[in-house]
Design goal:
Blueprint: E1 2-10, H1 14-32, E2 35-40, H2 45-51, H3 57-64, E3 68-73, H4 88-99, E4 103-109, H5 122-125, E5 130-136, E6 146-151, E7 154-159, H6 165-181, E8 185-190, H7 196-209, E9 216-221, H8 222-231, E10 238-241, H9 243-255, E11 264-268, E12 274-278, H10 295-307, H11 312-327, E13 330-331, E14 344-345, H12 348-357
Parallel strand pairs: 1-2, 1-3, 3-12, 5-10, 8-9, 8-10, 13-14
Antiparallel strand pairs: 4-5, 4-11, 6-7, 11-12
C-alpha cells in the first residue's frame, strides 16, 4: 500500500525525534510491503527563519496534498520576540484550521514498566490509568478575536470565547463514538456555573446523549476535573471538553502517566487525513544532544497507521516493540528511575535503533 506522509520536523528536538519515527516507519513498510513517501514541510521557528512566516501557504498545501502529517515540535525562546501573529505556535494553529482537524484525541495510559515514575501514590496508580481526552481543537478562545484596547487610560486585553451549537455537536459526537468503542462512559467537562458557552455545551451534550443510550454521560466542572484526575484517574474512560480546558487537562493527564515524552496524540476531522504528534514541546535546551525521548513521536506514527491508514497490525507491531524495549530496561533520561539498578540509559538514536530491532511482523 502506498501512502504520502508530510513530515514537519520543526524546531528544537523535533528533527531528532521525527528522524527516529521515520526510520521506524521505513522498517514497518519493509516488513509489511508498503511504500511510504515523505515530503518535508517547514513550520514554526525554522519557517520564520527561512520564509519569514511560521506556515507559508505553500507548506500548508503540501500537508493538504498528503495522506497524513507527522509533526515533531515547534517553538523556542529564539522566537519569543516575534510579533504575536507571526509566532511559531501560530503556524500550528493555522495548520489545524487549514486541515480542518477539529478533534484532538490524547490517551492517558500508564505503561506498566513505568508505573513507578508516576508522581501519584502507588495505591492510586494500582487502580489503573487508562483514559482518553477528546479535545475540541479549532474553536473556542484560541480562535476567537484577540485585541488590546485602551480604556480609562490603560491597556485592556480581550480574548473572545465562542462556540456554536454545530461545533459542540460534532466534537460531542466524537466523544460519544469514542466512548462506545471503549467502556461506554463519557464525562463532559465544562464551566457551566459561570460561562454561557459552557451552558450551551452542556445542553447540546445532553441532547446528544439521547442518541447514545448505551453510553453513560456525566457532567463535571473543569476545576473539579483537574482535581479528580490526580485524586482518582481510574474513574475516567473518555473525557470530552472544549479547546482551552482540553489543553490544560491533557497536559495534566500526561504527567500522571510518568513522562510527557511517552504520550502521542492524533488530530482528526471528517476525513482520514490526520495530524499526529507527541504532546511535549521542542525542548531547545537538549536539542542536538541525542538525549531526547523519541517514543512519543514513534507512538504517534503508530496512531497514524491505525487511525488514518487502517493498518492496525502495523500499529500493534510498533507498540509491541516499544513494550519489549521497556521490558528490557532501556530508558532515556526522562524515564530513567531514581533507583536505576535494572535499567540502562540510552539516547535518542539508540532508543530508535532498539525499537527497530524489536519490530516483528505479527
Amino acid at each position: 500500500m502506498k501512502r504520502d506522509i508530510a513530515l514537519i520536523r520543526g524546531d528544537g528536538i523535533g528533527p531528532e525525534i521525527v528522524g527516529q519515527a521515520k526510520l521506524v516507519l521505513d522498517r514497518v513498510a519493509a516488513l509489511y510491503g508498503h511504500e511510504f513517501n515523505y515530503t518535508d514541510v517547514d513550520m514554526g521557528g525554522n519557517a520564520i527563519d527561512k520564509w519569514g512566516d511560521p506556515l507559508p501557504q505553500e507548506m500548508l498545501d503540501k500537508c493538504l496534498a498528503s495522506d497524513s502529517v507527522l509533526l515533531g515540535a515547534v517553538g523556542g525562546p529564539k522566537w519569543n520576540g516575534v510579533p504575536g501573529p507571526m509566532r511559531p505556535e501560530k503556524g500550528l494553529l493555522r495548520l489545524r484550521a487549514g486541515m480542518g482537524v477539529y478533534s484532538n484525541n490524547r490517551p492517558a495510559k500508564i505503561w506498566p514498566q513505568l508505573a513507578s515514575a508516576s508522581p501519584l501514590k502507588q495505591e492510586i496508580v494500582d487502580k489503573g490509568i487508562d483514559f482518553i481526552i477528546v479535545r475540541e481543537l479549532i474553536g473556542g478562545i484560541y480562535f476567537g478575536k484577540h485585541e488590546t484596547v485602551t480604556e480609562n487610560g490603560e491597556p485592556v486585553a480581550i480574548d473572545e470565547l465562542r462556540y456554536s451549537e454545530s461545533e459542540i455537536r460534532r466534537i460531542g459526537r466524537i466523544g460519544f463514538e469514542t466512548a462506545r468503542k471503549r467502556n461506554h462512559k463519557l464525562c463532559s467537562v465544562e464551566k457551566s456555573n459561570v460561562l454561557d458557552s459552557s451552558r450551551l455545551w452542556k445542553k447540546v451534550m445532553h441532547e446528544l446523549a439521547e442518541e447514545y443510550p448505551d453510553v453513560e454521560l456525566s457532567d463535571m466542572l473543569v476545576d473539579n476535573c483537574a482535581m479528580q484526575i490526580v485524586k482518582d484517574p481510574s474513574q475516567f474512560d473518555v473525557i470530552v471538553t472544549e479547546n482551552m480546558f482540553g489543553d490544560i487537562l491533557s497536559d495534566e493527564a500526561s504527567m500522571i502517566t510518568g513522562s510527557i515524552g511517552m504520550i502521542p496524540s492524533s488530530s482528526l476531522g471528517d476525513g482520514t487525513r490526520g495530524l499526529y504528534e507527541p504532546i511535549h514541546g521542542s525542548a531547545p535546551d537538549i536539542a542536538g544532544k541525542d538525549i531526547a525521548n523519541p517514543i512519543g513521536t514513534i507512538l504517534a506514527a503508530a496512531m497514524m497507521l491505525r487511525f488514518s491508514f487502517d493498518m492496525p497490525q502495523e500499529a500493534d507491531c510498533i507498540e509491541n516493540a516499544v513494550s519489549k524495549v521497556l521490558d528490557s530496561g532501556y530508558r532515556t533520561g526522562d524515564i530513567l528511575p531514581t533507583d536505576a539498578h535494572h535499567c540502562s540509559l540510552v539516547g535518542c538514536t539508540e532508543m530508535g535503533r532498539l525499537i527497530i530491532e524489536n519490530l516483528k511482523k505479527g
